Amino acid sequence: MGNGVQHALEQLKTTGVRITPQRHAILTYLMEAMNHPTADDIYRALEPQFPSMSVATVYNNLKMFMEAGMVRELTYGDNSSRFDANVSDHYHVICQECGKIEDFSYPSLHEVEHQAETSTGFKVKSLRMELYGICECCQAKHVAAGLN
Q1: Which residues face 104 on adjacent strands?
Q2: Which of 8, 78, 80, 146 has the most neighbouring CB atoms within 10 Å?
């Protein structure tokens, strides 16, 4: 577990949020899962540890993390919300077939924000960039099925 989780928990404490074992587990899972899990994914992963936890509990905690600015909700692809604990500037490439989302970073996109500000006078607050394609796993299935 990286110090990212500790730092995030400290940050929450300053906003007056109680850190319950469930919250700790949800946040840790989110920060370590690189696959942008859905609330269901998180629930299924943690249920053995917290038999009394419900999907609603997971949702409510995710909402709270979002309000604290620690988690982002990604609504696209396969219509189910996925959650991302990486709130730094980064971009997503999304598989059109299985809905898998991967992060990538590309510094010169900051120039795009700057350019937009210069030409429109806007103050750019955030940037969401999505690329769509077919992941390696789905490509391999195509090859196996003789599709191209």
Answers
A1: 91
A2: 8
137 is in an annotated binding site: no
The three-point CA angle 134-138-140 to 5° equals 115
Locate all alpha helices (DSSP H) within the chain, ordered by sequence: 3-14, 21-32, 39-46, 55-67, 109-120, 136-145
Q: Contact, 15 vs 68, CB < 8 A?
A: yes
28: containing domain: 1-86
Q: Is residue 116 located within the same domain as residue 127?
A: yes
What distance separates the 2 farthest-apart alpha carbons in the chain?
Answer: 57
SS3 16: coil
Shared-domain flag, residues 3 and 28: yes
Query: What is the pLDDT tens value at each position of the chain, 148 positions in all?
Result: 446 777 778 877 887 888 889 999 999 998 888 788 999 999 999 999 999 999 999 999 999 988 888 888 887 656 678 888 876 777 888 898 888 888 887 777 778 888 889 999 999 877 777 889 999 999 999 899 887 6
**Quick one: how many helices (H) and strands (E) in the chain?**
6, 5
